[in-house]
User: Fold this.
Amino acid sequence: QVQLVESGGGLVQAGGSLRLSCAASGRTFSSYAMGWFRQAPGKEREFVGVINWSGGATYYADSVKGRFTISRDNAKNTVYLQMNSLKPEDTAVYYCAAKLTGRYSSGRYVGKDEYDYWGHGTQVTVSS
Assistant:
């Protein structure tokens, strides 16, 4: 069982930056790919990006590529989402998710149904 807790959300002006964190419980964090998703009001939850077990491979949605960066610190059981050049359309609840892959996997897990565990989300609001 893995428990995920997101933090770092808030209100920011367009063009600003935020860094989200997702702290995971458990001793096998490095066996999981970690994804970030977001859900705006009235919309489906959508893929933002994913990082593999080692941090050596990342993949992003086109809408955030070049602005968002995912990283992880396996010693701290934490994954990060650095968001720069934020736009009003980035406003959403942001969720982190964990998928058990074992080591040596660099798959692009973009579907929300592929993930095993979810956090409760953190609100990001970007004002224009």
